[in-house]
């Protein structure tokens, strides 16, 4: 095999992604799960306390298959809460006709489940921004836990869950200046399944950097499912602005890690100039 062959394969892969950004995402669907008919509903219970193989399989099949033709379907998702008597229930409208943003993806459910396990105290009285929200699943769960999230799409899901009093819906185009309608200093930024279209990689990184530029302590939770080798290029770009660590306090981590899903905490890099000045100043103080 020549050295150029992998590069040619990658280039062809990227060309196909440009033509059809959904193709890698749709390949993750389970052929054994058939989509429901239009205007129907599906019920899911994401209880992962039972470590049995059957329950593990149910957890890894986080969502029913949502085909490209799915239209105006409602999913009913239930997240058991260890800190509350009643589970967190979400009604989620999905529709593939606008593109991949109208479908719910596994990383979004993993991040939602993690927030529920952390409990209301983790998000209470905090401003939460969900970036690339799509159906708004993660932000809706955050709102149910008492946060004040910002969602990017699917006002219908806000209304369906009676969260219009605490949820503000706005459009944010990655890579463009932040609009004045955004909260200036979000406490927590949530992002799930945002890595799928390579031309958008630098735009997503820039927006993440802009959002954390104002304050040092903004927490960024980033849930990602690895689908292809080209995704590494996103992390090459991300490394210029952030460092990251894996979230290790999720009891389901080993389960979803087998499905190539990672939950990361991003940390803003300090400017090199500031770090150098700090080191020089420390050196001067030491030698005096």
Task: Give the structural class.
Answer: alpha/beta
CATH class category of the domain at 98-287: Alpha Beta
Strand content range:
15-25%
CATH superfamily label of the domain at 98-287: Vaccinia Virus protein VP39
- Overall pLDDT metric: 72
Note poorly predicted spans.
1-6, 21-52, 58-69, 278-288
**Helix-residue proportion:** 25-40%
Please provide the ordered H/E string of secondary-structure elements.
Answer: HHEHEEHHEHEHEEHEHEHEH
Rg: 20 Å
Report how far apart the termini are. 62 Å
Number of helical stretches of at least 4 residues: 11
Largest sheet: 7 strands, mixed
> Strands of the biggest beta sheet: in what spatial order?
6-5-4-7-8-10-9
Task: Write up what this structure looks like.
With 288 residues, the protein is α/β, with parallel strands linked by helices. The chain has a domain at 98-287: Vaccinia Virus protein VP39 (Rossmann fold, 3-Layer(aba) Sandwich). It has eleven helices and ten strands. The protein has helices spanning 4-19, 23-26, 53-60, 106-118, 120-123, 137-144, 155-160, 201-211, 232-238, 253-257, 272-287, and strands at 41-45, 73-79, 88-94, 127-131, 148-151, 168-169, 188-192, 219-225, 242-246, 261-268. The strands form two sheets. Strands 6-5-4-7-8-10-9 form a seven-stranded mixed β-sheet. Strands 1-2-3 form a three-stranded mixed β-sheet. A hairpin with an 8-residue loop joins strand 2 (73-79) and strand 3 (88-94).
């Amino acid at each position: 095999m020549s050295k150029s062959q992998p590069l040619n394969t990658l280039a062809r892969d990227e060309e196909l992604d440009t033509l059809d950004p959904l193709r890698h995402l749709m390949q993750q669907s389970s052929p054994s799960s058939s989509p429901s008919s239009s205007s129907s509903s599906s019920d899911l219970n994401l209880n992962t306390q039972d470590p049995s193989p059957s329950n593990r399989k149910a957890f890894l099949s986080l969502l029913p298959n949502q085909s490209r033709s799915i239209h105006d379907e409602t999913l009913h998702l239930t997240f058991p809460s260890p800190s509350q008597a009643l589970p967190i229930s979400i009604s989620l409208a999905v529709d593939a006709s606008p593109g991949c943003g109208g479908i719910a993806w596994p990383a979004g459910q993993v991040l939602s489940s993690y927030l529920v396990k952390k409990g209301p105290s983790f998000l209470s009285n905090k401003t939460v921004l969900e970036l690339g929200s799509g159906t708004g699943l993660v932000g809706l769960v955050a709102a149910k836990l008492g946060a004040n999230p910002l969602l990017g799409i699917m006002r219908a899901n806000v209304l369906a869950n009676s969260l219009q009093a605490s949820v503000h819906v706005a459009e944010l185009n990655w890579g463009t200046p932040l609009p004045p309608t955004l909260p200036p200093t979000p406490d927590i930024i949530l992002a799930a399944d945002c890595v799928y279209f390579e031309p958008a990689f630098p735009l997503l990184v820039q927006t993440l950097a802009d959002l954390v530029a104002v304050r040092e302590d903004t927490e960024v939770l980033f849930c990602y499912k690895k689908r292809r080798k080209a995704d590494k290029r996103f992390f090459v770009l991300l490394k210029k602005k952030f460092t990251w660590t894996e979230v290790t306090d999720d009891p389901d981590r080993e389960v979803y890690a087998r499905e190539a899903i990672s939950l990361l905490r991003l940390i803003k890099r300090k400017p090199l100039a500031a770090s150098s000045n700090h080191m020089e100043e420390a050196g001067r103080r030491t030698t005096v």
